[in-house]
Structures are given as structure tokens and as C-alpha cells.
Design goal:
Number of helices: 12
CATH topology: Rossmann fold
Distance between the termini: 83 Å
Structural class: alpha/beta
CATH architecture: 3-Layer(aba) Sandwich
Order of helices and strands: HHEHEHEHEHHEHEHHHEEH
């Protein structure tokens, strides 16, 4: 068909082509829209890496978007996945079975671990570490996140009394990776271990509270600031985590360079977070504003979950993060399947990062102790009854 149209245009002239005037009128707009879509969908991960025999802990995999796309690709490449979920119920069980069927991989398991609950995080990490010899761990892919409606002043709290976004996006993920440090260090020096943490461009709206990193005393008047700050503080702590993992072990003088930390900014996606942000948590707004009015524009300008997953897969599979190819010992920042640079000045302040890491560790331990006392008092009251 295109050959016939081209032949007609060359031999008989464009006037003989049906609907030529309409084609000429609208073709530039169609071409422009296609060019924008090609640009907005981002780059595809070009690296392929077989993951047979490798073991990964994954969070945020049940999103039906980026997280599920990453988990599916990892499973298809043969990885054994330990997926942390808030609760194990009928839906998550069916999701797991579907993932096993699609990937033809039975080595996918669910573990209950609500990242907003520090007690559950410690229980999982302790269970993981309580094994001799040390369990194999080829990496952690941390994609879990929570974004609350930006224009509602109702503060949601975690089991520990923390603001939910701070608890999930920062405290829980930080606590998990901090507790798993012995497991990372215990891996053989020839094993390529990767810690991949997703972040968000909204971290540009955040700020760092050195003396109150859990934001317990902060006024809840700008929910989006809590989200941005949770992402910013986690990113800064990851820079310090990399330095601590690189510190040589007193026993065997390992370099620690086989363990790399990468921060990934997947871009703007048509995700659960974006839907909640635009609809402000309202079902009616989701139907009429997001689905009806804005979706054509969002389809044009934003990525799908599968396209957002490409940068995470790049960080997982790129040989640039292998010890032999390291050019420096800094945390790698992956944007659009390529290495990028941090823009905020806090990323150059190692003293700030160290203090934030230490203070966060101290505050979490203090909070855990107080919650343990409350749980014990609750048990005693129950026993008396």
C-alpha cells in the first residue's frame, strides 16, 4: 500500500492521492506527537544478564507497574526472588502464582514485612542473618514507596507513630539495608552484589532534618514535602552506606568493592503514585480527571511502568557496576539508562551524610526500644485478663 501511494505521487502527482489535503494538514501534528512519545518513553536497557542461581530481596514488586515489570524480568532471567510484601493474602498469593507462570520460575517467594513497621523489618532481617553459613545474597532491589494525597492535611501514621511516607520511604528501607550490612559483607569477594534503590525527582522539594530525621516533631502542613524529604534523606544515607560497605573488614581485609549501591531515578510514570497525586486520593477525581481528561496527555508525556523499569534493570545488569570496571567509589546515579550526576549540594557533603546516617540509626533504635516496652506492657495486660 505505501509503495502504491509513493508510485502515484511520483508518476501522477500528489493530487491523485486520496485525502491528500487532509494528510498534508495533519501529518506534521502526528509526526510531532510521535516524536514527543519516542522522547518521553525513555531509553531501553540494552544489557542482558543471566541471573540463574542468584538471590535477590525485592521490595515494591506488587505495584502492577514498574515493580512488577522488574520482578518479572528478573524471574525470567532465572533469579531467585524473596519479595517483601505488606501482607500475605489471597490477592498477593494469586499475584505470586501468576508471576511464577509468566516467568516459568518457581523460585519466587513472599515474605511478610511491612516496611513502615520497624519491628517487622527487624524480624525479617534477624531471620535472614540468623543462618550459618551466611545465606547467599546477590543484591537488594528496593522499589517500595508511599505517596499520600498532597492537598489533604490528615496525617497517616505507621505502627511506630511515624508519618507514613517517612516510615515507608525512608525509615523502613534504611533500617532494612542497615541491618543487612553483615550479610552484604559476608558475601565472597568475587560475587557481584548490587543494592539498587529507586528515588524520585520530587526529592528536589525535600529538606534534611539532622536532629529529627524521622520527622516526629515536624508540622504536617505540606504532605508533598514529607515525600520529597523521605526520598532525599534515603538517597543521602545510601552514599554513606556505600562508604561503610567499602571499609575493609578487620578479619579478612576485603575491599568491599564487590558491593555497589546505585540510586535509580526511573522518570515520570503512569504509576499509582502519579494517580494519587493527580486525583488527591479521590475516586471521582481519578475517574473524571485522570482517566478521562488527562490520560491522553499523560500517555503522550509519561512512561509506562515497563518503560520506567528499564533504568532499574540497567542498574542491575550493566557491567559498569562490576568491581573490575569501577572508575571511582561513589554511588552511581542512574537516569534514563545512563550514569548521571547529582544536582543538590547535599550530595557533596560527606559530613552531613555521615551525621544523618548515625542520627537516623540512633533515633530508630530509640524508637524500637520504646515500642518494645509498649508491646511488653500490652502482653502483661492481656495475660492478667
Amino acid at each position: 500500500m505505501p509503495v502504491n501511494i509513493l508510485a502515484t505521487a511520483l508518476i501522477e502527482g500528489t493530487d491523485q492521492i486520496p485525502y491528500w489535503n487532509e494528510i498534508r494538514k495533519y501529518a506534521p501534528y502526528v509526526a510531532g506527537a510521535l516524536a514527543i512519545k519516542v522522547w518521553s518513553r525513555g531509553t531501553t536497557n540494552k544489557w542482558q544478564r543471566k541471573l540463574n542461581g542468584k538471590v535477590y530481596i525485592v521490595t515494591g514488586a506488587t505495584t502492577q507497574g514498574m515493580g512488577t515489570a522488574v520482578a518479572l524480568e528478573m524471574a525470567q532471567q532465572g533469579a531467585q526472588l524473596v519479595i517483601l510484601v505488606r501482607r500475605i493474602d489471597e490477592w498477593t498469593t494469586e499475584w505470586l502464582e501468576d508471576l511464577r507462570v509468566k516467568s516459568n520460575n518457581e523460585l519466587i517467594f513472599l515474605e511478610q514485612c511491612d516496611l513502615s513497621d520497624l519491628y517487622q523489618v527487624r524480624k525479617f532481617a534477624t531471620k535472614w542473618l540468623d543462618n550459618k553459613p551466611a545465606r547467599r545474597l546477590d543484591g537488594v532491589v528496593a522499589m517500595a514507596g508511599d505517596l499520600e494525597p498532597a492537598w489533604k492535611s490528615v496525617r497517616k501514621t505507621s505502627a511506630d507513630g511515624l508519618e507514613l511516607q517517612i516510615a515507608t520511604n525512608f525509615a523502613g528501607t534504611f533500617h532494612l539495608l542497615d541491618l543487612l550490612k553483615p550479610s552484604f559483607k559476608a558475601q565472597p569477594p568475587d560475587r557481584d552484589v548490587r543494592i539498587i534503590v529507586t528515588t524520585c525527582m520530587l526529592q528536589a522539594l525535600g529538606e534534611v532534618k539532622i536532629d529529627d530525621p524521622l520527622w516526629k516533631d515536624a508540622q504536617y502542613n505540606r504532605p508533598l514535602k514529607f515525600f520529597g524529604s523521605s526520598k532525599l534523606q534515603l538517597s543521602l544515607c545510601m552514599l554513606e552506606l556505600q562508604r561503610r560497605l567499602l571499609t575493609k573488614d578487620e578479619k579478612d581485609e576485603r575491599s568491599g568493592k564487590n558491593v555497589t549501591v546505585a540510586l535509580v531515578q526511573p522518570g515520570i510514570m503512569r504509576s499509582t503514585s502519579l494517580r494519587r497525586l493527580l486525583s488527591n486520593g479521590s475516586v471521582l477525581a481519578l475517574i473524571f480527571i485522570y482517566t478521562t481528561l488527562l490520560y491522553p496527555l499523560l500517555w503522550l508525556l509519561t512512561k509506562s511502568g515497563n518503560r520506567g523499569a528499564q533504568s532499574v534493570l540497567y542498574a542491575l545488569m550493566s557491567p559498569e557496576l562490576e568491581e573490575v570496571n569501577w572508575k571511582d567509589e561513589k554511588v552511581k546515579y542512574v537516569v534514563n539508562c545512563s550514569m548521571s550526576k547529582f544536582s543538590r549540594k547535599e550530595f557533596d557533603d560527606t559530613e552531613l551524610q555521615t551525621k544523618l546516617y548515625d542520627t537516623t540509626t540512633s533515633k530508630i533504635l530509640e524508637l524500637e526500644r520504646s515500642m518494645a516496652i509498649k508491646r511488653n506492657m500490652g502482653k502483661k495486660k492481656t495475660e492478667k485478663k
